[in-house]
Amino acid sequence: MKKAIFLMAVWTAFIPLSAKAASDLPQTEAQIMGTLAGAAWACGADKSLRDFELIAGNILLNKAQTKTGQQLAIDQYAQAKLNGYRTQKRFPKLSCDLVLERFANQDIFKSTVMSDGSVKMPDGTWLYPPDKDSGLY
Q: What is the average pLDDT across 74-83?
């Protein structure tokens, strides 16, 4: 819950809101992360974007309860990333220098992804991959 609130706060820092845009706000963690990645991508983020996507992908996939949930998270992330990219390219509200600075200073970069796909979050909590032996996703 804290992570979703943090991501929403960071997201709102990237794209100022208007009354019309409020209806287009991302509703899921995947959409928030995708929008952030898209804005950074539009501004030329390279290594930090690769790191972000590794961490974000593991977080989203570990949180999904089913294969369908995983696919939905992937689809939402990808669509939001494209929309974030387009918005930053066409109607930038912040300079790319500021976007990249804020992107690089996110707490998500304090996460650690382990070789088995588990993620240690900055607050010390762990997210574990689905148990493939049990058939649960």
A: 97
